[in-house]
Amino acid sequence: MLSSTSLFEEETTLFADLILPVPIPSLFTYRVPREMSSMIKVGARVIVQFGQKRVITAVVAQIHSNPPVKYQAKYILELLDDEPIVTARQLDLFYWVADYYLCNIGEVLNVALPAGLKITSQSRIQLNPEFEHEDLLTDEERVVIDEIRKHQTLSYEEVERLTARTNITKLIKSLVGKRAVILFEEVKERYKPKVVRKVRLAQGYLSNDALVKLTSSLEKNPRQQEILLKYLSFVPVYNNPDLNLGGLDKTVFSQDKSLSDAALQTLVKKGIFEQFEIFISRFDEIPAAANGPIALTEHQQEASRQIHEHFQQKEVVLLHGITGSGKTEVYIEMIRQVLASGSQVLFLLPEIALTAQIVVRLRKVFGDVMGIYHSKFSDNERVEVWKGILDGKFQFVVGVRSAIFLPFDNLGLIIVDEEHETSYKQHDPAPRYNARDVAVILAYMHKGKTLLGSATPSLESYFHAKNGRYGLVEMKERFGNAVLPAFELIDIKKEKKSRKMKNEFSSVLLDHLRYNLEHKEQTILFQNRRGYSPYLQCEECNWISQCTNCDVSLTYYMRMNELRCHYCGHKEEVPRTCPNCGSIRVKTMGYGTEKIEDELHVLFPEARVQRMDLDTTRAKNAYQQIIQDFEEGGTDILVGTQMVSKGLDFDNVSIVGIFDADRIIHFPEFRASERAFQMLTQVSGRAGRRAGRPGKVLIQTNNPGQPLLEKVVNNDYEGMYEAEIAEREKFGYPPFTRLIKVTVKHPDEQVSAKAARALADKLLPNLGLSRVLGPQPPLVERVRNQFLFDILIKLEREKINFKAAKSFIQEKVTDILTDKTLKSIQVVIDVDCL
Ligand code: ADP
Ligand code: ZN
Ligand code: ZN
């Protein structure tokens, strides 16, 4: 670090090492222009030229005076921030993630920074719909603005061409500064501002005396007086001067045709009214603190007390509370306390749960200090949360996995709700991180604590809790005398024999559905497969609908009359006859949610049925809408994939029906039992959540006697854990080992196989046969025309130096990637793969 009093200050040239949001391992050194040198700070964003034409946003990681040895440093073009936008703590975390998950720091930055903070040459420029001050534009800017008006948006390059400048960042920055334009990434939705323009009385006019004087002084200007009176009729400040602070929406005036807009402007010019703006986000419509504080039950108080006690010694506590035990209220209590002590809190939720009920509940309690960070929100909303944390507006953030990358500086507590959820793991692109695990590190860096919560904890977390590494707190009662639902296993083999099934529906399930419809109670039906049927098959020649790009069958969608690949998105028309033999006997095989929904319409034409799966919830508020309809009783039967199992809290669900439990249990994967237990328990947990309305869960299976089902029925998490953990130990799977999956991809199967073999051969001598499995093709061998081979590496938790092993693996991967005889293979390393 240079001290500002350095004698050599005048002569030293500063250099900055920058993190560029690109997949390149090292930092890049750029030269700091002299006029920037007193302002530039670590953590600030800069704009630099990268490559021939690209201009990108980078973050300053270090400032020093050593020119790079191997290349001539280019100048930084632009400094975007006076104050760091990335904190020192965040940089530490980014480095940790890059190191642990074997990826580049730039890739971490790229995922961490919302696109709105990354101006790139791929950005598009849009007119700010709220732009007012045309008079501030320079001639050149006006040309750009006129062009945008014509075309809606312009790309960075188009602006470049238009202005014949080589570097337009200054120009763009100026336009952004004048609030004339907005930048957005092409793929993202456009920014719909949620700004409300308001006016209020200036401070000097709030006393009754001043108001009287003001009113009479406006006698000569009746139009202005009318405005004032209109304002006072909505905002009676003479009763309560505090009301003035909230002001009045300007549209109130503009909608009233008898009022003069000019008069309002005059009042503003005179300084009688002042204008201001507020930004509202979607959740601002939820009234803050609508409910008074909820008193914790004895069980909840006890859980809360135990959590505190464990935190005296431990960094992490696992709260294992059955579905409906009221974990949320325990969280709320914890959050309250930590916020009151002046520290920040982060509450992580799995992707899908976020738009749902729990956020509304939290919002009601915490109001404006709570920021929401969701991938379905627009980028601008995410930037608002980022900046809101930096400037202290948000002390508490509820968010999805990427929220761990926000600029916290004083985290006291991170809560990871539904910690077993796989959506905490990012699969693509790198960093392939698990936010639950990173949360523990992040809290530790802040000297804060982590609270993991679930009714069905991951084996890893429960293992740590059992071993005393984490504190363990259990809640075994449902709130308010509600009881866990009763189970009935339906033997569909028997039903089929006695011809009682109607397609996918057993007679028992049909009876219950009928009863529920008659008694106006709600039902949730669970089938963990979307589409109408997973494939089509020809009865003559056994042809099966297959994706042309992937080794997987095409799912049939009846309503769209389409075949779709769930791996690459490829779509086809449904063939009228078998493409292989021309037969017309092409049949749908198996069933998904669309088929269940379709059959329900036939079986119960009067029932109001909704479907909730990836296909019906793509639109922005669709998920929310389906939940709301169900909540308000507008839906009788909700059919869905595992989406229906996630943390939903409904009053009136008395039946949960589960199709095809066997397929979930026998999924060919070592975590199948754990996952099946979690999925079945979670979806069952949606039934009977209110006292006096016991719920029932009907599971259709070919084998009612199988041990895992028995454990689900008896709510025997412990039993599942004991059985599973023994297997894991025996076969050397997590939590006894850590898994690293290395996947080799290439369009030519031979090349891919050869490269994978070569890589395995390099790993084997040091790691040994028991630690290196494969190479073997994954379940789906070809995706998007790339042939895949997996090598699974198992590293014992205790014995192996994980860090050393990882750098060894990375080294060997680099060897393969740089091998001239293996052309253009891709290798993906996934640390702690799921
Ligand atoms: P979990 O997340 O453990 O499945 P929830 O936190 O959703 O359970 O709680 C289940 C239901 O019980 C919710 O509707 C919640 O509002 C209610 N509830 C929980 N604790 C209390 C309490 N102390 N007072 C009033 N209602 C409560
Ligand atoms: Zn055929
Ligand atoms: Zn495909």
How is this fold's topology laid out?
Blueprint: E1 15-19, E2 28-31, E3 45-50, E4 54-64, E5 78-79, H1 88-100, H2 105-112, E6 124-127, H3 139-151, E7 153-155, H4 156-163, H5 169-177, E8 181-184, E9 195-201, H6 208-217, H7 222-234, E10 248-249, H8 251-255, H9 261-269, E11 273-279, H10 298-313, E12 316-321, H11 327-340, E13 344-348, H12 357-366, E14 370-373, H13 379-390, E15 396-399, E16 411-417, H14 435-445, E17 449-454, H15 459-466, E18 471-475, E19 486-491, H16 492-497, H17 507-518, E20 522-526, E21 535-538, E22 555-557, E23 562-564, E24 571-573, E25 586-589, H18 593-603, E26 609-612, H19 622-631, E27 637-640, E28 653-658, H20 661-665, H21 672-684, E29 696-701, H22 707-713, H23 717-731, E30 737-746, H24 749-767, E31 772-776, E32 782-783, E33 786-796, H25 802-817, E34 826-831
Parallel strand pairs: 12-17, 12-18, 13-15, 13-16, 14-15, 16-17, 19-29, 20-27, 20-28, 26-27, 28-29
Antiparallel strand pairs: 1-2, 1-4, 3-4, 3-5, 6-7, 6-8, 9-10, 9-11, 21-25, 22-23, 23-24, 30-33, 30-34, 31-33, 32-33
Helix pairs in contact: 1-2, 10-11, 21-22, 24-25
The structure holds adenosine-5'-diphosphate and zinc ion (ZN) (2 copies).
